[in-house]
Amino acid sequence: MTRIAILASGSGSNAEKIMEFFKNSTKAKIALIASNKSDAFVLERAKKFGVPSLTFSKKELDSGILLEKLLTEKIDWVILAGFLLKIPAELIRAFPERMVNIHPALLPSYGGKGMYGHHVHEAVKAAGETQTGITIHLVNEHYDEGKIVFQAATPLVPEDTPETIAAKVHELEHRYFPEVIDSLL
Ligand code: GRF
Question: Which residues on neighbouring strands pair with residue 53, listed in sequence order?
């Protein structure tokens, strides 16, 4: 049974959809939810699904303590679902082609430093884009530049605001992220 860990820093609506998708799976198990924020709502969502969770500090992330826990838990895949810290190269190297991230835009546009959450949607709005979307990619040491495995787009209208853009993007994420992960395993 493939064992999956999800790293998340915030609300965890993507993590919830993934736990929902795999809850009766015979192929893979969401074995751990790990967050760098002890008050992240994703931890409540883990409780609801009976998935073990843990919190870690940036120091534990950077010093390899989180990696040790993932190896002890025999984790096979690491999913980043709204995880906002830089993943240390050592951790990326421990999961070659086995670490997946979701970005709320059509990379390579609107990626890179500072491009997360509402900043992305504000930039898309400011640029007057007629579409936006999601990118699911493998994580390498250059972060948003890993191999793209899936993209989906949604049209935008002039009346869209960063908030309505975010809602359209979340809808795509919730619809596609779980099954794209499943197809990668
Ligand atoms: C999503 O928009 C995702 O693309 C980005 O962070 C957000 C996480 O949202 N990486 P949630 O915590 O899953 O609700």
Answer: 33
**Domains of the chain (ranges, CATH numbers):** 1-96 (3.40.50.170), 102-185 (3.40.50.170)
Nearest to 141 by CA among 90, 180, 179, 107: 90
Is 118 designated active site?
no
Look up residue 128 and give its two tokens: 């007057």
pLDDT of 139 = 96
Query: What DSSP designation does 176 have?
Result: H
User: For residue 143, what pLDDT is reported?
Assistant: 67
The preferred substitution site among 14, 80, 87, 121 for testing ligand 1, maximizing ligand atoms within 8 Å of CB, is 14
Q: Which two tokens stand for residue 116?
A: 């997360």
Flag whether pLDDT at 152 surpasses 80: yes
- Tell me the average pLDDT of the chain: 97
**159 token code pair:** 């009346």
